[in-house]
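Subject: Protein entry, chain in single-letter code together with its fold tokens

Category: Structural biology, sequence-to-fold work with a learned token vocabulary.

Notation: Tokens come from a learned vocabulary of local backbone shapes, not from coordinates.

Start of record: The labelled sequence and token lines come straight after this line.
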Amino acid sequence: MPAFPSLIETQDGSHSLYSEAFGVSYHSKYGAIQESRHVFIHAGLGQLLPTRERVRVLEMGFGTGLNAYLTLLVGQSSKKHFFYETVEPLPVPLEQVAYLNYPTLLGGSPADFLALHHSNWNEVVPIGTNFQLLKWHATIQEAPLSGQFDLVFYDAFAPSSQPELWEAPVLGKIFAAMASGGVFVTYCAKGVVKRCLRDLGFTVEGVPGPPGKREMIRANKP
């Protein structure tokens, strides 16, 4: 049984977790909320939101639930509809979830944040009126993805920790599950990952990264 990850505070005051098993933190030390907003909300969702009333999101790595919570808050403020499918083989213990300070810092509902974590696995659960959540308690290789995703938040641990998640078999599954015109974003900017994405058929660009990181990847499925 893997050891529980430990709670840490990042430089913007928001919490993250440190995984002893993988030797990495779940977010940037420069700021968990700051990083997630920059990479996934601004660089990813911001590309689609102005022209879409409904967005289908796939997230690799539910983790602390921060990306899902930020997306839920966008849905509440924009009145857009979200179907949010996420994959997590090692869920964060619910005892630790209660300590995460995201609702306090973001001014959102603590009940909504906890609902993301307490909702049943492997079934569609409504969170409010315009957000549907489907969490797979599985590896990305095992998860039976529903497909036709407009947006992918690729938030796996780094290639140095889990290289198999950044190689063609897995990334090809992601590509196949995306709709034409879909957007893929990740904090990672490694050249080998860019090349793999291009080989799979993505159009790849390097865009400015969050604080502490010069670049990140945004890719589009033609």
Observations:
- The mean pLDDT is 97.
